[in-house]
Design brief:
By secondary structure, the protein is of the alpha+beta class. The chain is 28% helix and 27% strand. The protein folds into two domains: 112 residues, Outer membrane lipoprotein wza domain like (Outer membrane lipoprotein wza fold like), CATH 3.10.560; 65 residues, wza like domain (wza like fold), CATH 3.30.1950.
Length: 239
């Protein structure tokens, strides 16, 4: 019985120790910012090198044009500095500022006038990489991810396979460099899931860090150890 008491005491001490908060830093003396729960300043779109407006062509974009059953016209074209694309047969056409649907309708009309009968044409914009983000911590597939557009925090976490069962979802950290200074903000993912909180935007070079919940880990370890403790109890009572 004495051995059982010693074992239980040691486990209780380990359980209490594990319940301490874990900060996203290897430095235990690191101090989190006082304004941790305030919103980031707005990010100007022009400060992002390759900022794109979804579904609208601009200079430098790649237009993926498919003309079904006409291989000579099917190709990827670059929108030049003048905002034009020089297409076979129909020549230069102003593309910058037009949506993919508008370009599709224009090409269908142009080629259908004299060159093709009932042309079937599709138009897509080849996505540009904006940059990379880091998602680390208590997620299923942590890593560095290329982003092609500005995404939301929930989408960034989804890229990493979602949070693990041990994730501390009440406090998700976003790390961002603003004017040469690294800033950290905490977001409650539970509020976002309940539609009660704002789902903040994640920009290129941001880092998302999800803590593990020490209390959950300790509780899971307790459940795993219960059969062992029961075995000791049965053995002690039989002596």
């Amino acid at each position: 019985m004495k051995a059982l008491w010693v074992l239980f005491t040691c486990f209780s001490f380990a359980l209490l120790s594990a319940c301490a908060s874990v900060l996203p830093s290897s430095n235990s003396n690191a101090k989190m910012p006082d304004n941790l729960y305030e919103a980031f300043p707005d990010v100007e779109p022009g400060s992002i090198t390759a900022f794109t407006e979804q579904d609208v062509f601009k200079v430098g974009d790649l237009a993926d044009i498919t003309v079904f059953n006409v291989e000579n016209l099917t190709s990827t074209y670059v929108v030049n500095r003048g905002g034009d694309i020089d297409f076979p047969l129909i020549g230069k056409q102003k593309i910058a500022g037009l949506s993919t649907m508008a370009v599709q309708e224009m090409l269908t009309a142009k080629y259908g006038e004299q060159y093709l009968r009932n042309p079937n044409i599709t138009v897509k914009i080849e996505p540009h990489k904006l940059g990379r983000i880091v998602v680390d911590g208590a997620v299923k597939e942590p890593g560095v991810f290329e982003v092609f557009e500005i995404i939301k925090l929930s989408e960034a976490i989804a890229l990493a396979g979602g949070v693990t069962v041990d994730a501390k979802t009440k406090e998700i950290f976003i790390v961002r460099e603003i004017n040469g200074k690294r800033q950290v903000r905490a977001v409650n993912l539970n509020d976002i899931r309940k539609f009660a909180g704002r789902d903040p935007k994640i920009y290129p070079n941001d880092m998302v860090f999800i803590q593990e919940s020490a209390s959950r880990i300790a509780f899971r370890e307790f459940l795993r150890t219960v059969p062992l403790l029961n075995t000791f109890a049965i053995y002690a009572t039989r002596r």
